[in-house]
UniProtKB/TrEMBL annotation:
It catalyses: [(1->4)-alpha-D-glucosyl](n) + phosphate = [(1->4)-alpha-D-glucosyl](n-1) + alpha-D-glucose 1-phosphate. It is an enzyme of class 2 (transferase). GO terms for biological process: glycogen catabolic process. It holds the Pfam family Phosphorylase. Keywords: Allosteric enzyme, Carbohydrate metabolism, Glycogen metabolism, Glycosyltransferase, Phosphoprotein, Pyridoxal phosphate, Transferase. Homodimer. Dimers associate into a tetramer to form the enzymatically active phosphorylase A. This is Alpha-1,4 glucan phosphorylase. It comes from the Eukaryota. Its cofactor is pyridoxal 5'-phosphate. GO terms for cellular component: cytoplasm.
Length: 764
């Protein structure tokens, strides 16, 4: 069969034990066996470390995709880096984020198997020699790539795929060459330099940091897998009589490589290098093979996230790849020039090389010219990709651009994390939804069924009680379990607008203070997420959230009507606890900035209602469930563009809206930071004078929309009916559907729902 290779610098896997039991259909058996040993399985599960080899959405998407590819019976491999240290652990000290190294391998990792027999060399530095026999890349420094395999089981179909993560190892002669005679100790200590490649995950989400170590990681994650892929291609027989396959004609029919963002973009020049320099394939043929093999997924339109590597760094680290990129770019520009004669500006816009004081390589442009398919991750995002980010490329080859709306695996994000809800659903419509989430549509028949309404509400209440108990046990915070659990969990970023949430919390607080006798819908506002260690504004936002909580949670006139909680160290295993307990899901990015979002989908399938902007997959969620069943507010993409054109003036809103002015004045006047009144100067200054994400422009609509949320929440029956309608309409957002579309429309393979026979039975 054709093999699928999913290349990613991040795989945010979380814990593996319970997922393995669920997919193998062993959970009840294990539960019982462990119970008979006098142990509690849930206690055991809590001991396992998260495999935190990702930052957020992009890395978690890769993990969901692996689950779906195995469940759909695809011959798929996930390839990435086995970071010794994953995403940092977050501690909150005096209200500030403090990072701690995530030493997740400290006690070993029972799920991985080292495969030293497949160790491969990866080359760096050196120089290029053009000889009559062809091009040679020589005098390189070698680092060994040691593979570790982790099994990826499909759901009850006896398929087990592989995630192969590579660890960097210094060769034994490292730095012990003849010129380094004598300093043996120093040389052995220097092995660390080579092995640093797989030491630590870069903790930036949606932000490019052009460090040499990161570029090494990006080449490492491509060079080892490609050798592996080609070895496997050559050793596969498929009707080939040669003992060793030398013809690459059929390569794209047997191999599909998916690039998860531009991080593995070096696959394109590396595959060219192997085909042309090593396998002696003709250049044009090699280019055809490369393009037919690779496909690229774009994950963001934020300019600060786009990878633009200095040419000078390439020259030093990967000299041959730089030559290849120059040649590919020349070919590409010749074609553009022929189609648009005299349009010099178009050539400049479309070049892979950006001219300027510092010449840079635009990795996104490299991916677009080197792939046969380019996709965005939600319909609105794919439209933006076609109409603005890659507009020129879309005009050149419109057939190349596609949409593949993201999804989440219903195994982890419903069955595993919310067994109560899964049971209530299965009782009504059977278990088919687990592998075909569109079957949830059948729940629409029960929207007015009183027992079903009661059962769904009961499960939610149980989840809330359980989470409240967890919060009390772990963080010593007492919350009111009958309050609305209002949750925003995601990486801290200005575009995600946690600040808008803060302004609402302050507004609510001020309303209670101005008339304490008034009746209020009680809320527990929970905000969680990590800030990149170098992202000053994001760290200030965390400090602001904790400071607001400090004041509100200790004001006696508030009581248990309002609490603001910062959820420390948000990660996959915490998401599995908080999402099933949420009543309200906040998805409030400025329209046109969140490519898709996947947390939004997890909340929807777990019975929370969404308050959100028309951004990312929220648009399609509203389309599936009906806009009236989400709390949609604020500017649309067109409005944001119009406001940009007109010029956004924050002060105008500040002057016009008294509640907004009061909240902003409290932040800037030190009401929430009496010890340090100027603490939030930078935050207020940003909001007033250079807010790219227009927080104030959506404030009024947001506050009003939150009022509608309050109103509906007081009517538990109507609220629960909306919840059921949302769950029933969430089927589209299964990663099984997403992977089905990738398979059919990009990779050219047919997924099979067939269960292969177990290993103890003979195969047909």
């Amino acid at each position: 069969p054709q093999r699928i290779y999913y290349l990613s610098l991040e795989f945010y896997m979380g814990r593996t034990l319970q997922n393995t039991m669920v997919n193998l259909g062993l959970q009840n058996a294990c539960d019982e066996a462990i119970y008979q040993l006098g142990l509690d399985l849930e206690e055991l599960e809590e001991i396992e470390e998260d495999a935190g080899l990702g930052n957020g959405g992009l890395g978690r998407l890769a993990a969901c995709f692996l689950d779906s590819m195995a469940t759909l019976g695809l011959a798929a491999y996930g390839y990435g880096i086995r970071y010794e240290f994953g995403i940092f652990n977050q501690k909150i000290v005096n209200g500030w984020q403090v990072e701690e190294a995530d030493d997740w391998l400290r006690y070993g990792n029972p799920w991985e198997k080292a495969r030293p027999e497949y160790m491969l060399p990866v080359h760096f530095y050196g120089r290029v020699d053009h000889t009559p026999e062809g091009v040679k890349w020589i005098d390189t420094q070698v680092v060994l790539a040691m593979p570790y395999d982790t099994p990826v089981p499909g759901y009850k179909n006896n398929t087990v795929n592989t995630m192969r993560l590579w660890s960097a190892k210094a060769p034994n002669d490292f730095n012990l060459q003849e010129f380094n005679v004598g300093d043996y100790i120093e040389a052995v200590l220097d092995r660390n330099l080579a092995e640093n490649i797989s030491r630590v995950l870069y903790p930036n989400d949606n932000f490019f940091e052009g460090k040499e170590l990161r570029l090494k990681q990006e080449y490492f994650v491509v060079a080892a897998p490609l050798q592996d892929i080609i070895r496997r291609f050559k050793s596969s027989k498929f009707g080939c009589r040669d003992p060793v396959r030398t013809c690459f004609e059929t390569f794209p029919d047997k191999v599909a490589i998916q690039l998860n963002d531009t991080h593995p973009a070096l696959s394109i020049p590396e595959l060219m290098r192997i085909l042309v320099d090593v396998e002696k394939v003709d250049w044009d043929k090699a280019w055809e093979i490369t393009r037919r093999t690779c496909a690229y997924t774009n994950h963001t339109v934020l300019p600060e996230a786009l990878e633009r590597w200095p040419v000078s760094m390439f020259e030093k680290l990967l000299p041959r790849h730089l030559e290849i990129i120059y040649a590919l770019n020349q070919m590409h520009l010749d074609r553009v020039a022929a189609l648009y004669p005299g349009d010099i500006d178009r050539l400049r816009r479309m070049s892979v090389i950006e001219e300027g004081d510092c010449k840079r390589i635009n990795m996104a442009h490299l991916c677009v010219i080197g792939s046969h398919a380019v996709n965005g991750v939600a319909r609105i995002h794919s439209d933006i990709v076609k109409n603005s980010v890659f507009k020129d490329f879309y005009e050149l080859e419109p057939e190349k651009f596609q949409n593949k709306t993201n999804g989440i695996t219903p195994r982890r994000w419903l069955l595993l994390c919310n067994p109560g809800l899964a049971d209530v659903i299965a009782e009504k419509i059977g278990e088919g939804f687990i592998t075909d989430l569109s079957e949830l549509k059948k729940l629409l028949d029960f929207i007015n069924n009183e027992t079903f309404i009661r059962d769904v509400a009961k499960v939610k209440q149980e989840n809330k009680l359980k989470f409240a108990a967890y919060l009390e046990e772990q963080y010593k915070v007492k919350i009111n379990p009958s309050s609305m659990f209002d949750v925003q969990v995601k990486r801290i970023h200005e575009y995600k607008r946690q600040l808008l949430n803060c302004l609402h919390a302050i507004t609510l607080y001020n309303r209670i203070r101005s008339d304490p006798s008034q009746s209020f819908v009680p809320r527990t506002i929970m905000i969680g997420g990590k800030a990149a260690p170098g992202y000053h504004m994001a760290k200030m936002i965390i400090k602001l959230i904790t400071s607001i909580g400090e004041v509100i949670n200790n004001d006696p006139c508030v009581g248990d009507r309002l609490k603001v909680i910062f959820l420390e160290n948000y990660r996959v295993s915490l998401a599995e606890k908080v999402i099933p307990a949420a009543d309200l899901s906040q998805q409030i990015s400025t329209a046109g900035t969140e490519a898709s979002g996947t947390g939004n989908m997890k909340f929807m399938v777990n019975g929370a209602l969404t308050i959100g902007t028309m951004d990312g997959a929220n648009v399609e969620m509203a389309e599936e469930a009906g806009e009236e069943n989400l709390f949609i507010f604020g500017m649309r993409v067109e409005d944001v563009e119009a406001l940009d054109h007109q010029g956004y003036n924050a002060r105008e809103y500040y002057e016009r809206l008294p509640e907004l002015r009061q909240a902003v004045d409290q932040i800037s006047g030190g009401f929430f930071s009496p010890q340090d009144p100027s603490c939030f100067r930078d935050v207020v200054n940003m909001l007033m004078y250079h807010d790219r994400f227009k927080v104030f422009a959506d404030y009024e609509a947001y506050i009003k929309c939150q009022g509608q949320v309050d109103q509906l929440f007081t009517d538990s029956r109507e609220w629960t009916k909306k919840v059921i309608r949302n769950i029933a309409c969430s089927g589209k957002f299964s990663s099984d559907r997403t992977i089905m579309e990738y398979a059919q429309e990009i990779w050219g393979v047919e997924p099979s729902a067939k269960k292969i026979p177990p290993p103890n039975l003979p195969r047909d």
